[in-house]
Amino acid sequence: MNTIKVGLLGFGTVGTGVVRNFQHNSELIQQRLSHKLELTKIATRDVDRDRGVRLEPGVLTSDIDEVIANPEIDVVIELIGGYEPAKSYILKAIANGKHIVTANKALMAVHGQEIIAAANQQGVTVMFEAAVGGGIPIISAIKENLCSNKFSSVLGILNGTCNFILTKMSQEGSNFAPVLQEAQELGYAEADPTFDIEGVDTAHKIALLAALCFGTTVDFDQVYTEGISKISAIDIEFAKQMDYTIKLLAISKNHGDQIEVRVHPTMIPKRYQLAQINGVFNAVRLIGDFVGPTLLYGSGAGMDATASAVMGDVMAVSRDLIAGGKPRVPILGYNADKIKNLPIMAMSEVVSNYYLRFTTADQISVLAKIAGCLGTHNISIQSILQPEEREIDSVSIVVMTHEAKEADITSALAEIEQLDVVLQPTCLIRVENAPV
Question: Is this model's pTM higher than 0.90 or not?
Answer without folding.
Answer: yes
